[in-house]
Amino acid sequence: MAGNPNTIIESLGIYLPPTSCSTTEILQGCKNQLRFPLEKITGIKTRHLAGQEEFAIDLAKKAVADCLEKSKYNPADIDLLICCNISRVDGLDILSYEPCTSVKLKKHFGFDNAIVFDITNACAGMFTGIYIVDTLLKTGTIQRGMVVSGEYITHLIQTAQREIESYMDTRLACLTLGDAGAAVILENGPDNRTGFQKIEIQTYGRYSPYCIGKASETSRWIMYTDSVNLTDVGIKTGAKYALEVLEQAGWQADAFEHLIMHQTSRMSLNSAMQEINNLVKSKIVHEGNTINNLEERGNTASTSHFIALADQIRNHKIQSGDRVVFSVSASGLTVGAALYVFDDLPDRLRQTGSSKPEGTDDSYGEIKRSGTPVITPGIRIESVGTIPDGYIEKKDSLELLQLAATNCLQKSSYPCNDIELLVYSGVYRNEYLMEPAYAALLAGKLDMNATTSGLEDKKTLAFDIFNGAIGFLNACYITQQMIAAEKCRTAMIVASEIENNAGLYPDKLVGVRETASTIILDAHPVKGKGFTRFLFSYDLDSLDAYATFCITSETERILHVEKDPDLDEKYIACILPVVRELLRQEGIGPGQIDMVFPPQISSGFIARLSRQLDLPVERFIDAVGDGPDLFSSSLPYAIEHAFKNGLVKPGDTGLVIAIGSGIQAGCAIYHF
Question: How many other C-beta atoms are found inside a 10 Å radius of the C-beta of residue 359?
Fold first, then answer.
């Protein structure tokens, strides 16, 4: 075998809704007539539209089904499932919050052995998901993973048609969107000759305000885009970045057959080609090797590269052995580049029927497959930041985040620009903002490596993990793997929550504390200290025990909460077996646990959990008191409470427990 194996795309599935609509019809549907050559500028003649009977989750399901049909694997063979779409509009005027899309897909398809969570990183979502799967493949934690996105985004067109005032309007880009679903299965290839030769991605948060997707003033959803500035910085940064990645990988500047950029507009693609050619002073990219898939697809957001890839494979324009440069550019500003050499995937995808061999329906114990080996060096909590007691300013989730992060950095040995990974794991935020990643907005506020630089300079990758109250522990797990794989050395995980209904519907609250929290993680200098083993488990029969979703109309927007009256009991029933299995895998007994860091739902919940685990309540950190639920900030507040009150000392062993909608339970061992 030549070198360590690269990550390969084992299967690719896509789905396009059957209904199409022309750019001419889109313009004709605008309330205010626009005299603007949108089709000529963008190159988009038609695009596929969902929103009648199919929405985001339906597009994701059909892409997954197509991907599995073309794969040799079954759902039970997938160890990690990540869903990456920007929009979570899963029904007419319904925006889903909890449970996350990936856990719904887990139940629907029977991904019985997969750890699941959603991420959001604007149009870079799928490549961020691939970056994470590639990390876990390199650490040997998983054997294969699936990344999926169902982008129903054309509901933004309808809002824009009602609201756009002129062709200079920042909502104009909404008229270029199209709907699609895409999914890939990733695994280690046989060697390093094929697959991803290099994947690099980073965030320049200073430019995050250039594209914002959020609630409209008319209660619907809209995207505001500063197209001139976003395109300018995106093209210049993306072109330079792609060439630097080529150089780092040892590829000649023209050593590829295809360039696939984010499909936004014909003018943007042409400008990017010109920028690349100007930088190398040679015409290395041209219409012959630069894929333009816009004419019948439009901008399909995070699925864009993979819809274009599937089309070119189907049209025999991409062959086995071809080398492809994927250039990633998304609001945030997140840019990246991935170099890929195809094995026989194009030939396999062009074959009719499934390539799944007989007898591949393996069945593994879920807890067994969700466990991870002990990673050394351990990953420690280097610093913690929360909101100071008595803070009563206006509850703004981004302001709260900035305050908690600043508090954390003041206690840390690391300056801001040493943070190489920034992950936001909160759920509820102002204006129901969907794009860009909240982490990118925070990176801009903190000036965390926030402006364009060289590939060798300090950099930060920012993205969101979106998975209810368990998302923070998911983020710790992913950070552990990224540090172990040497993808980063330091990471900041942040969370914030607000009550979206507090102003107009104070009797319909989620019941979470409006606060924010931050921890910084790094590699522990002492072997075996810090986080070692993580374990996640799922009670999918209780998927509907807790759900939140936003319903919009022409006149109002309200967040609905549906909760079983016995939810706490279901949470505890899900926690008990995963804790016992974690202790068994770690080789320690309950008596060796010095302190438990439980979900900070309420003191009553903590007391009941201690009785069920048969551990003294004195060993349980209670930072919540009478509430409200500390939710996604449970772990930082519990850790800070333990440190402040001297409840842990070097040599102690801690048990971290998280629970969230799904129902999903997670736990980890932490050695102080």
Answer: 6
Half-sphere exposure at residue 51, Cβ-oriented, CA atoms within 13 angstroms:
18
Over residues 307-336, the pLDDT tens digits come to: 999 999 999 999 999 999 999 999 999 999
Kindly give, in sequence order, each residue whose CB lies less than 8 Å from that of residue 376, ignoring residues fewer than 6 positions away.
527, 528
**Do residues 508 and 559 touch, judged by C-beta distance below 8 A?**
yes
Give the DSSP H or E segment for 550: strand 546-552
For residue 138, how far is the Cα from the chain centroid? 19
CB atoms under 10 Å from CB of 648, counted, come to: 18
pLDDT digits (tens, 9 = 90+) for 254-286: 999 999 999 999 999 999 999 999 999 999 999
Are 192 and 8 in contact by the 8 Å Cβ rule? The answer is: no
pLDDT digits (tens, 9 = 90+) for 603-626: 999 999 999 999 999 999 999 988
The answer to whether the beta carbons of residues 203 and 458 sit under 8 Å apart is no
Report which residue type is found at 627.
G
Between 50 and 625, residue with greater pLDDT: 50
Distance CA 557, CA 560 (A): 10
Per cent of the chain over pLDDT 70 is 94
**312's tokens:** 């070119």
SS3 content of the chain, % helix, strand, coil (to 5): 35, 25, 40
List, as one string, the DSSP characters of 199-260.
EEEEE-GGGGGGEEEEE-TTSSEEEEE-HHHHHHHHHHHHHHHHHHHHHHTT--TT--SEEE
| Contact predicate 324/289, CB 8 Å | no
Which amino acid does the sequence have at 537? S
pLDDT of residue 3: 63
Structure tokens given for 434: 């969907």
Length of the chain: 672
Instruction: Decide: 656 and 668 in contact? Cβ < 8 Å.
Output: yes
HEC letters along 366-434: HHHHHCCCCCCCCEEEEEEEECCCCCCCCCCHHHHHHHHHHHHHHHCCCCHHHCCEEEECCCCCHHHCC
Asked if residue 528 has pLDDT above 90, the reply is: no
- 């390969």: which residue's tokens? 8
